[in-house]
Specification:
Distance between the termini: 27 Å
Oligomer: single chain
Strand order of the largest sheet: 1-2-3
Strand content: 15-25%
Length: 101
């Protein structure tokens, strides 16, 4: 692992096409700006790990563990359920926006 020290406004170049800029530092929080080609996916690690786990769980699911009906199209209202809050397949609460955004 390469460890660098950068100040706000300073940059790191990765390869020929990725530029990481330190936007600011506040306490233990560092804000980064990342410029990369549109085809390069960029994720926060916790989101990437959650997606990876959901994909693994979906790949291992048996047909009888899948819902009987496909989900409603985006924008359509879902029928009311008796559950008080939505949950992911891992039981974690569903959030409207990613953490820290």
């Amino acid at each position: 692992m390469l460890i660098l020290t950068r100040r706000p406004g300073e940059r790191v170049v990765i390869g020929d096409e990725i530029l990481v800029t330190v936007m600011g530092v506040s306490g233990h929080t560092v804000r980064l700006g990342i410029a990369a080609p549109q085809g390069v996916p960029i994720y926060r690690e916790e989101i990437w790990l959650a997606v990876k786990e959901e994909n693994r769980a979906a790949a291992e699911a048996t047909p009888d563990a899948l819902p009987a009906e496909p989900p409603a199209p985006s924008g359509a209202s879902a029928p009311a359920t008796s559950d008080a809050a939505a949950e992911t397949s891992t039981g974690a609460p569903v959030e409207d926006s990613p953490p820290g955004s």
